[in-house]
Amino acid sequence: MSYPHDPHSHARPNEIAVQHLDLDVTVDFDARRLTGRATYTLDRSTPGATAVVLDTWDLDIRSVTAADGTALEHELGEPHPLLGRPLTIVAGSADTVVVDYATGEGARALQWLDPAQTTGERFLFTQSQPILARSWIPCQDTPAVRHTYRATVRVPPELLAVMSAENPTERTADGVYSFAMPQPVPSYLVALAVGDLEFRPLGERAGVYAEPAVVDAAAWEFADTERMMEAAERLYGPYRWGRYDLLVLPPSFPYGGMENPRLTFVTPTLLAGDRSLVTVVAHELAHSWSGNLVTNATWDDIWLNEGFTVYFETRIDEELFGADYTAMLLRLGRQALETEIATLPARDTWLSLALADRDPEGGPDLVAYEKGSLFLRMIEHAVGRERLDAFLADYFDRFAFQSMDTATFLALLRAEVLEPAGVGESDVQIEAWVYGPGVPTNAPDLPSDAFDRVDRQAAALVAGTAAADLDTAGWAPQQWVHLLRALPADVPHPILADLDRTFGFSGQRNIEVLTAWLELAIGSEYVWSADEADAAVAGFLARHGRSLYLRRVYTKLAATPRGLERAREIFASAAAGYHPVARAGVARILDAA
């Protein structure tokens, strides 16, 4: 097998690649450290190759041996500020190598939570995407290398351990748990969580884990998970991972969800109490095909992961909730994309990114997601949904458990979709979409009658209609978001005060609606004239750790000197509760202001 060059990894898998990992780790909450033994089964691609290279970050490498205990020559290279240190092991002719190690204080994939950060006493979770797995396991930390794994995890007996693998549903008496992942996965999809967890079934193949205080609410919120699985299979073929379970993490989890195979990690901000945010579950489920099954070869190709997944997610939504609902999601996505593009240098708005000298975590947020999805919508309009669906179903099956790069995918698209449909390059402008800035002019229209009704109410509000007299009966959360985005930045403060009194935006449970309100309150400077709005901003930033929404609110604050001062004040007290990924993202915003 040939592997592409990955600028974000020291590994040399074209010489020797990891084929299987056996992991044995002890979780020490007091020391905040994992102590482990990683045993690697090797796959030699180059005859005569003797060295296997692993990625590490702040790991204490204690010994390296062959399977029989014979010490192997090894060297930790010089530290790289982004990539960590390569661990080069002279394996000779050995097919197995064993590394004993412990994690260090700089283990960026690990978040150890204190009681104040969780409803239980202790909690640990990993977040390995994109290149953080190397901070808790020596590994070939590139999405192009896949391996199976087994693991033994030792935790305090009052806690439950779960992984991106076959999982227990009850605690053991001794706190020792065994896991198996029989399907090969890249290192960023190896995941672990430990906490006071309970399990609730959601169907024959689905269930949810969460802390006792929220597990029943989570089971109610995610009751449609099995229906989502069935809809996804009708679209693009069988689910290939056995079970699909969810783990609701504490509020410091930096993402909406993380698509760890068999066990999606999700934020508690999805527990809105009305099932209005479950499209995030559809997104993470869709990753079971796009991303987990067929994986981007490097992080420059992430649109093949996230763009496909947003497209797939909205197709699931359309199957379950209808075209009108999905039209609102598509319009909101396009709005968010245009907002982000306006802030980015032109090169960062290509689908094919250039992240070689950058942390891939610091790349553009929405281009890969929304522009990638819009690209597939454009192809659908050009060739017809039936033809594109047949191609995608075959694509996921043909390249299952493999990686894909942009050039290879585009060649497939041209040869197997566009040419048979008689669609030429000038009709779809592939080069402009993938290797050009912004959104090309042939992007499909995304009409929404529901949003047209909202626009009329926004105009009436600005013209003087009282909030209580607006026609908002039966509005979905997406319509409230659109209303808040549709209002001008200079909307008079009495109108905003009337809106908040009437609809209670400052106390909203739906994070999408609340964030849109906070952005409007900050951008219009209403926040400085209303104590409740300022309190809502401070409370939001202290209470939530979801990185995208933190960055949106901090970015609005940092746009003015007064807001920047307030942002730094809030960050100083709230940052300790953020995941390192979220903390670094906010710090970049404040440092650049």
UniProtKB/TrEMBL annotation:
Catalysis: reaction(s): Release of an N-terminal amino acid, Xaa-|-Yaa- from a peptide, amide or arylamide. Xaa is preferably Ala, but may be most amino acids including Pro (slow action). When a terminal hydrophobic residue is followed by a prolyl residue, the two may be released as an intact Xaa-Pro dipeptide
Requisite cofactors: Zn(2+)
Residue intervals of the Peptidase M1 leukotriene A4 hydrolase/aminopeptidase C-terminal domain: 448-590
UniProt key word Protease: yes
Subcellular location(s) per record: Cytoplasm
Enzyme Commission code(s) on record: 3.4.11.2
Keyword Zinc: yes
InterPro entries in UniProt: Aminopeptidase_N-like_N, Aminopeptidase_N-like_N_sf, ARM-type_fold, LTA4H_cat, M1_LTA-4_hydro/amino_C_sf, M1_LTA4H, Peptidase_M1, Peptidase_M1_C
Family, as annotated: Belongs to the peptidase M1 family.
Protein name according to UniProt: Aminopeptidase N
